[in-house]
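Preliminary data (for renewal application), nicotinamide-adenine-dinucleotide complex.
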Amino acid sequence: MPFKRSVYERSIYQEPAPIRDSDDPFQSMVERFDVAAEILELDPGFYEYLITPAHVHITAVPVEMDDGRVKMYEGIRVIHNEVLGPSKGGIRFAPDVSVDEVKALAAWMTWKCAVVGVPFGGAKGGVRCNPKAMSPKEVERLTRRYTANLIDVFGPDKDIPAPDMNTNAQIMAWVLDTYSMHSRRTENAVVTGKPVLLGGSVGRREATGRGVMTVTLSAMERLGMRADESTVAVQGFGNVGSVAAQLLSEQGCKIVAVSDVTGGYYNADGLDVQAMIEYTEANNGSLEGYSEAQVITNDELLALDVDVLIPAAKEDQITKKNAGNVKARIIAEGANGPTTPAADDILNEQGTLVIPDILANAGGVTVSYFEWVQDRQGYFWTLDRVNRRLDRAMREAFDNVFEASEQYDVSLRIGAYVLGIDKVATALQMRGIYG
Ligand code: NAD
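Predicted structure:
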């Protein structure tokens, strides 16, 4: 490999960092990166380049509330890396969004795009706010001002946002409209995950959950498990979790538990996922009060005796405290960063197959890429074409990661990091360092 370590005076990753179990997702990313960098014998200069975010934007977002008061919010956009192409990554609205979290999520986007062969770099954005306590008009004003503040950052050839936690197609429509008003023409390729009527792709809303299903089935195949004999528990019942649950139940799996921020819902005979989706649609997105199941805690859900566990809510859910309780044979990480590095060690030890986030939830960015291609061509694909190409991309990525993990005798997570980092480092070597 052309980028092998050339300067040997000090390897940054020679002294392993202490294994952490913290809520610092950027540190979690770096710990996994270090192991992969060691395997790749990455040049120390390249190491520094590849863990350092290219741009970190922090912007004050003033919003006039419905009652006339002005409130200030913190808006963040991190572009981690642009070596493979324009940067790509979602925007999340949440009360606990932090720069470190967004930096980690942006880096994961870089490796994720590389793992699934999407020609984008990595980015992520967030606004520290509680959208559930805001009116739709307040959320719209927040979205538009955040977009306007970052107008020179975003662009179809520069940086392309998408939905993430607590953001959706409507919010992407406001990003599209605000950007288009400033550029005096409709720029639908500036954002993905938007409504189909505005240039969105069919299948994008379901893409992340569909990708989770595809890699779960691939993993089952490798372990000789049958979908129609397998039980599944899903933490998080939003865009990713609800679709993954529904599609896996269509494949014959028995979904015995799901949860959201209000708690867990369990039925040993299998839940009616479609009925639960309809319930949340009529109940402001929440499962609270759902009565056709036994109520359990989120911790109990993670420890259920199931074949497959799908964390699809948020970071740091499986930690050194509860990893030993996990009984599932397969964990498919729908969420970004749900497992801490210390938990990884415990899971590897007990033989749990973890399909890592940068592979398992890459279906979303894959169809976002398809959406961007369609917008730029002004020619839109059928759902069948989108799903076939998505399924192929996810199956190939799973096989590549599986083979890398066997080749280097490492977990799937480290195998995925090795593949992703190798690709970006090779591209960086080809482009060279400008200046
Ligand atoms: P969402 O807002 O649609 O849903 C999040 C769900 O998690 C909700 O049901 C919420 O109630 C639940 N939740 C929140 N905190 C919880 C807790 N402590 N315990 C249990 N449940 C909790 O978000 P989403 O788009 O489904 O994203 C979920 C995860 O998937 C995030 O980590 C996100 O970064 C990741 N992801 C999303 C996409 C995508 O296309 N939407 C793509 C890749 C990765």
